[in-house]
Amino acid sequence: MARSVFVFCGLLTFITLFYLCRAQQCSTSFTFNGSSVNFAKCASLPTQKAMLAWTFYENNLTLTVGFTGEAPSTSGWVGWGINPLVAGQMVGSSVLIAFTAENGSNVLPYKLTDSVQALAEPLRCSPVDIVIESTAVEIQGASMSIFAALKLPSNKTVINHIWNGGPNVKSYQPQEHGLSANDLNDHTQIIDVYTAQSFGGGSSPHHSLKRTHGILNTLAWGIILPLGAIVGRYMRQFTDSIWFYIHVPLQILGYTLGVIGWALGMRLRAVTSASHKVHQNIGIALFVLATIQVLALVLRPSKDHKIRRYWNYYHHSIGYAIVLLSIINIFEGLHILNPETKWKSGYIAILVLMAVVSVVLEVVTWVRYIRKRREDGFP
Ligand SMILES: *[C@@H]1O[C@H](CO)[C@@H](O)[C@H](O)[C@H]1NC(C)=O
Ligand SMILES: *[C@@H]1O[C@H](CO)[C@@H](O)[C@H](O)[C@H]1NC(C)=O
Ligand SMILES: *[C@@H]1O[C@H](CO)[C@@H](O)[C@H](O)[C@H]1NC(C)=O
Ligand SMILES: *[C@@H]1O[C@H](CO)[C@@H](O)[C@H](O)[C@H]1NC(C)=O
């Protein structure tokens, strides 16, 4: 038993580390003009190893942006911009395009019109529909970064942004990007620069990551583990050992799913750089406490050992702490992801049900306990 639990924990740790290392990180720190520029938030974008970082200044509605993308070749271009009117569309966008020319590294403004898209007209540098206060560019091989300080058009923090890259530039005119599915899909996103939420025209990968993280963790930490605790506390008086064979598998299942959900949370933090300190710290505390509980199973002293009583105190108090912290953190998470209300109401309904069952069983337990004491001759 002990051995298989250790093997199990080792495997789980391995899977977790694998997940964490695979996470594509975004960075808030860039270098432009030989000096470093730091932004408040960042997000990795779903294609072209692209990444966006930004700071939004509420006082003057200025948005500073750092964008990095990878061109198909070192003589290619990388572009980032905003469509002020329509989400998810190239036509109508105002973009900044970075490339290397005879006179050095350039980042110039372009307007993407119908005729440019139809290839009826070359893409010429031109004034754009967004207010650009300053720009900078940094090119290292095919990896190109753009800095821009923009004045947002109105008191609106939700922007429709767009990015892409192409293989050639001729006399300051970026040539068409590739036309494969990889070059065309997932190159636009809607992002709220204030909350750092992104909505990707239905295709943002963070959405499904957030969803999976939320569902898995609610199921594991918010339902299975508390259920296991209820079994542990109340079934014991009715059965000799069956409760144990339900309690342990439930908790191991809850822990497994919980650790996977936890790893997804770490990945979410890496790809969105979102800083939710309270939620993250409770999450880390939960992971540590739950791991201690699994190890406690292995180190459990035998039933009639004199320290078993203390082991029980410790196992129960950590268990209750986990249930309490889990519920708090699920509500924290619901507050952050802000899903449709049915998710929150659904979870509250499950909690109420579990609470009612616990209260009933608690009463039953006390009644049985008092009756037994009477039978044993205590008043
Ligand atoms: C906007 O405000 C920020 C912070 O107060 C300041 O650093 C920045 O220079 C301002 N930008 C403009 C264009 O006024
Ligand atoms: C290079 O020349 C183009 C065309 O004259 C000009 O628009 C651009 O600003 C120049 N870039 C640099 C880095 O001097
Ligand atoms: C970088 O240098 C260019 C040209 O000297 C300047 O226009 C631009 O404002 C600078 N940008 C940053 C972010 O320092
Ligand atoms: C922008 O709008 C929000 C709410 O609509 C408001 O709280 C905020 O003060 C506004 N900011 C500016 C700079 O007008």
Automatic annotation (TrEMBL):
Its cofactor is heme b. GO terms for cellular component: membrane. InterPro entries: AIR12_DOMON, Cyt_b561/ferric_Rdtase_TM, DOMON_domain, UCP037471. PROSITE patterns: CYTOCHROME_B561, DOMON. It is found in: Membrane. Residues 1-23 form the signal peptide. GO terms for molecular function: metal ion binding. Keywords: Electron transport, Iron, Membrane, Metal-binding, Signal, Transmembrane, Transmembrane helix, Transport. Heme b binds at H213, H247, H279, H315. Residues 48-166 form the DOMON domain. Residues 175-370 form the Cytochrome b561 domain. SMART domains: B561. CDD domains: Cyt_b561_FRRS1_like. The keyword Cytoplasm does not apply. Binds 2 heme b groups non-covalently. The chain crosses the membrane at residues 242-262, 282-299, 311-331, 346-367. Its main location: membrane. This is Cytochrome b561 and DOMON domain-containing protein. The lineage of its organism: Eukaryota, Viridiplantae, Streptophyta, Embryophyta, Tracheophyta.
